[in-house]
Amino acid sequence: MLEAVRLVQTNAEMPEGDDGQQSALVIGLGIGTTPSALIAHGINTTVVEIDPTVHDFATRYFRLPPNHTAVIDDAVVFVEQNKHQRAYDYIIHDVFTGGAEPIDLFTMEFMEGVKGMLTKDGVIAINYAGDLRLRSASLVVQTVLSVFPTCRLFREDVGSEDDTETDFTNLVMFCRKAAGPFSFRQPTSADFLGSQARQYHLLPQHEVEPDLLVNRYSQDVIRRENTQDLANAQMNSALGHWKVMRSVLPDAVWENW
After folding, report:
1. What is the pTM (predicted TM-score) of this model?
2. Which of 39, 88, 192, 231 is buried most, with the most CB atoms less than 10 Å from its CB?
3. Could you report the per-residue pLDDT of 4-29, keeping only the tens digit for each?
């Protein structure tokens, strides 16, 4: 779904097939699925990843193409040094570490920095993985909405209506630097890159109204000098994540890991 930043329709409509004129910044590499797709579409792509081993493995074992700019550094430092460049048409923010999110990458100051790095019609996709019923999700969403004038939120699944269950999912926030509504164009066969999974999951489907997340708690935002609220709130979300993971693989796997 993160790759749908290419599908956002803005006032400065890009002619189809002109991806080669675009630039992207990917914060957080993982196995490199999203940057690999951007590179395949001819987009000039920069990847910021703090762990050199992650980049090494993505290149050696998951076919991350070599034709990208790799920045092995703390994203907080990189953004602080480059926040006035306005260099990127797309930014992908995807930094889930398996149970929690790096708190410094969700502060209002960090979000303001990445906003400054977008071109005037630029689009950012921010992935938050967590339990949407917990205060941690509300804090993150409220912080993002306080910085970007126009956002649309999509979860990766339908979700349960049972309030007694956890609601752990990926929530992707698509935001524009400029104010005003936006939509997503229908993808073409070229957008799928031969992937059946993209045919089902590329176009965002399950939209969430922001008020459903931000109104259940106070209107606090995460600031650099006060991240303890999110740190405390993430604990329950992290426990919920590992409960989900233990349902995927037997306990013995995790106990011997």
Report:
1. 0.88
2. 88
3. 999 999 765 554 546 778 999 999 99
